[in-house]
């Protein structure tokens, strides 16, 4: 379904003459096709989201480097690409929603301390796939487990 949406948006961008958006969507579809070739199968929406997240992380890393190099022209391009990628990614949970889910998971799994980090993270990863930055989730979880 997500791939169909991308292909539809590609046609719309082509018709409207939006060359920048068209280029980004083509890059996305190309990365999806490459992943399909690697895996040898059609990708699910969850796998496509994973590809999009990887692309977003790459662009965020580029933004940091371009900022350090004082290349604001390139920063603007990368930021626009992130914006387009965000359009296709699921909505991210806010800090309060993350806190609530972490607390519920800790109670449900009866986590007592840092030694329970692995099982709790595994559970959260399936619940939050594509909806939160797992690095941030890990930081919040570590704080909760160290204060237990």
Task: Write a structural description.
The protein is 78% helix and 0% strand. The chain has 7 helices and no strands. The protein has helices at 2-16, 19-39, 45-68, 72-88, 95-108, 117-128, 134-146. The longest helix is centred in the middle third of the chain and has 24 residues, at 45-68. The radius of gyration is 18 Å and the shape is globular.
List keywords for this structure.
single chain, Hypothetical Protein Yqey, Chain: A, domain1, Arc Repressor Mutant, subunit A, 2 domains, 7 helices
Layout of secondary structure:
Elements: H1 2-16, H2 19-39, H3 45-68, H4 72-88, H5 95-108, H6 117-128, H7 134-146
Helix pairs in contact: 1-2, 2-3, 3-4, 5-7, 6-7
Oligomeric category: single chain
Query: What is the number of helices?
Result: 7
CATH topology of the largest domain: Hypothetical Protein Yqey, Chain: A, domain1
Radius of gyration: 18 Å
What structural class do you assign from the helix and strand content?
mainly alpha
Q: Any idea what the CATH superfamily of the largest domain is called?
A: Uncharacterised protein YqeY/AIM41, N-terminal domain
**Distance between termini?**
42 Å
In short:
This protein has 148 residues and is mostly helical. Helices cover 78% and strands 0% of the residues. The radius of gyration is 18 Å and the shape is globular.
